[in-house]
Amino acid sequence: LPSEVKVKVVEAIEGIDGGPGILELSHRSASFDRVIDGAREVIRRLYRLPETHEVLFLQGGASLQFAMIALNLGTRGGFLTTGEWSRRALAEARKVAEDKADKPVELYSCEPLFTDVPTQLRPQDRDGQALDYIHLTSNNTIYGTQYKALPQRADGKESLPPFIVDASSDIFSREIDWSKVDLLYAGAQKNAGPSGVTIVIGRRELLR
């Protein structure tokens, strides 16, 4: 971290707004509200977020989102397996769907070498059923497979199911076209902040 950031961290531990430090604050206090609101505003500016999207701070790291997405958005997700973390996301979705009629679908896989990412997709599963969403990992650090652009429909039409993006390893590293991304999440520990915090940016309609 830059030295000036470390100084601010130390100062925040000692005290904020003339009161207790960041480690002692009540999560219901006005001082803590200002910390959270300030962090949210910084993210909005960095990503040029439109009003259609909201920023959430959640617990559990990005891996917890693997289950939360299936639990909240549906178990008939389409998964693009392009590395270790996208493989784990599919495995967790399958656990959630064990007793469900709708199962997750692996739309694409480049195992075992993980050398490429898809540029075109079909919007349904193999039986022609609509998908709840399409999940991808924007950058798989272990194998180096990174999307430069989101996949398009193979038939050239416009609409696809909502795109869910695990951006844990490249969050804030490039601009995002938010008209095409419905939910993006990332463990904060690589590019943004302390471990254990997960940044979730979602389309307001989807979050509701």
Can you walk me through this structure?
The protein has helices at residues 3-14, 30-47, 61-73, 84-96, 204-207, and strands at residues 53-59, 77-81, 105-109, 120-121, 133-137, 139-140, 145-146, 152-153, 163-166, 183-187, 197-203. The protein is an alpha/beta fold. The strands form three sheets. It has a seven-stranded mixed beta sheet with strand order 1-11-10-9-5-2-3, with helices on both faces. It has a two-stranded parallel ribbon with strand order 4-8. Strands 6-7 form a two-stranded antiparallel sheet. The radius of gyration is 19 Å and the shape is elongated. The two termini are 36 Å apart.
Question: What's the structural blueprint in terms of helices and strands?
Answer:
Layout lengths: L2 H12 L15 H18 L5 E7 L1 H13 L3 E5 L2 H13 L8 E5 L10 E2 L11 E5 L1 E2 L4 E2 L5 E2 L9 E4 L16 E5 L9 E7 H4 L1
Parallel strand pairs: 2-3, 2-5, 4-8, 5-9, 9-10
Antiparallel strand pairs: 1-11, 6-7, 10-11
List keywords for this structure.
two-stranded parallel sheet
Short recap of the structure:
This protein is of the alpha/beta class and 208 residues long. The chain has helices at 3-14, 30-47, 61-73, 84-96, 204-207; strands spanning 53-59, 77-81, 105-109, 120-121, 133-137, 139-140, 145-146, 152-153, 163-166, 183-187, 197-203.
